[in-house]
Amino acid sequence: MLSDSSKVPHRPEPQVRRAARRRQWSVGHERWIFETAFAVATALAVALVLSIVGRHAGWPSSHEATDPTIETQIYAAHFRQFDLFPVWSSSDAFGLGTPAPLFYQKAFFYLSGAIYLLLGGHIKWTLILSSAAFMVVGVYGMRFAIATVTQRSVLLTIGAIALIFTNFSLTDWLVRGDFAEFSAMMLVPWLLWWCLTLVTARRASFAIIPILTLLIIAHDA
After folding, report:
1. What is the DSSP string of 14-56?
2. Sign (positive/negative) of CA torsion 49, 187, 136, 162?
3. Are 133 and 178 in contact (CB under 8 A)?
4. Which of 61, 80, 92, 175 is most buried, by CB atoms within 10 Å?
């Protein structure tokens, strides 16, 4: 007499492995499509936001006493002399000099100063590309933060990209001209991601060290 187990057909091992590989490929393919679509949507959103200044000559004036174009060139001048940690600007304040590089916003102008040198002194494109870089950082930070509570593609995409269209985010760099607050704001979603990961997954990460370091140097000292 045959046992009950002999009546149940066993699936051949090679077929099981092939089915698992097909499922894995399908999941990976869908993931690749989403990542590509998300990257394209982010790039289009950033281009749309920055088209406000890109389609007009010059750069909007703001109430900030310091000019982002001047600060970018100050950092670039120090980088030309291989001074990677500027603390004093002798060319600022009508030649009298100030400690602005030491006490004022750093993260944005470290990036913009380097881009300014790479572009050969094109200040407007320097500010556009620097702002775009921080926008991308902010969008992906928000995307990972949202992913800790939901995996729905629509919510991930809309929730993340909406960050750069919010009132404060948009007016911070466009109207106020405060790139310190703007760059810090684009880093805050990564801090939010770390905190949500700690709460939901009970997993701490050493990523908190570079996140807090960048947040400290992004804003005024």
Report:
1. HHHHHHHHHHHHHHHHHHHHHHHHHHHHHHHHHHHHHHHHHTS
2. negative
3. no
4. 92
Output the tens digit of pLDDT for each of the chain's 221 residues: 445 555 555 555 666 665 556 665 565 668 889 999 999 999 999 999 999 998 888 887 776 655 678 888 889 999 999 988 888 888 777 778 888 788 777 889 999 999 999 999 899 999 999 999 999 999 999 999 999 999 899 999 999 999 999 998 998 888 888 888 899 999 999 999 999 999 998 888 888 898 888 888 876 54
pTM as predicted: 0.82
Spatial separation of the C-alpha atoms in residues 110 and 176, rounded to whole Å = 20
Look at residues 125, 126, 99 and name the one whose alpha carbon lies nearest to residue 114: 126
AA identity, residue 35: E
Kindly state the tokens that stand for 76.
Answer: 């670039």
Tokens of 85: 């940690």
Q: What is the DSSP string of 186-199?
A: HHHHHHHHHHHHHH
Q: Which residue type sits at 173?
A: W
Give me the numbers of helices (H) and strands (E) for the chain, helices first please: 10, 0
